[in-house]
Amino acid sequence: AQSVTQLGSHVSVSEGALVLLRCNYSSSVPPYLFWYVQYPNQGLQLLLKYTSAATLVKGINGFEAEFKKSETSFHLTKPSAHMSDAAEYFCAVSDTFYNQGGKLIFGQGTELSVKP
Amino acid sequence: DGGITQSPKYLFRKEGQNVTLSCEQNLNHDAMYWYRQDPGQGLRLIYYSQIVNDFQKGDIAEGYSVSREKKESFPLTVTSAQKNPTAFYLCASSIVGKSADTQYFGPGTRLTVL
Predict the structure, then answer these.
(1) Which chain A residues have a beta carbon less than 8 Å from that of B94?
(2) pLDDT digits over B33-83, tens only?
(3) Which of B44, B99, B106 is nearest residue A102 as measured by Cβ atoms?
């Protein structure tokens, strides 16, 4: 069965510092991987997704993620944090071969705080 | 503007009552989804539908029901059988419901049982 683990339920960085949010997945088949962002009391917005075209994926708002098969990881990074990046971030996985209607499995989420 | 609307934004229910959450999309997407979000647990899939008049149970369907009579609408009913319904409910849609498709989310409905 597929699963996603996000290491750290809460991450705090200073404005201008590197953002690193960790995501590890478990899948018996090549996965599709997604990062979403959620601001308080709002829906989720897609940051980026991996669909096997390239291992380094660039997304919106300066975020990027690298797919590492050997480490089963898909960590999200941003070189310089901005106050507006404070939000909750979710990593999600879906399978490639057993199409179950695009079913996404989400991690528990990581809340990012940015200090001035 | 194309998008997904959910109503109401906040909903209060007494124990023993059924309530229906609305989800409408004008993106012309075939697939629609309902998720439940609880603090520290991420999102869990309740039901999904890939085509009109057809839907499948997700991981936590007990105590919920859905219908898909129109392509743009996918209402969720929280029944009195759902033991702990207080949560944030999110509706999503995607083009055809394949694994690589991006799911687009609505703004959510926060349900509180009094």
Answers:
(1) 102
(2) 999 999 888 899 999 999 999 999 999 999 999 999 999 999 999 998 888
(3) B99
As a whole number, mean pLDDT of residues A67-95 equals 95
SS3 (DSSP) at B48: strand
**CB–CB of A60/A47 below 8 Å?**
yes
State the Cα angle at A40 between B5 and B12, rounded to 5°: 60
**E strands, A27-115, where?**
31-38, 44-50, 56-58, 64-68, 73-78, 87-95, 105-106, 110-115
Hey, which residues does B10 pair with through a beta bridge?
Answer: B110
List the single residue in A32, A103, A106 with the smallest CB-CB distance to B42.
Answer: A106
Q: Does A59 touch chain B (CB under 8 A)?
A: no
d(CA A43, CA A63): 19
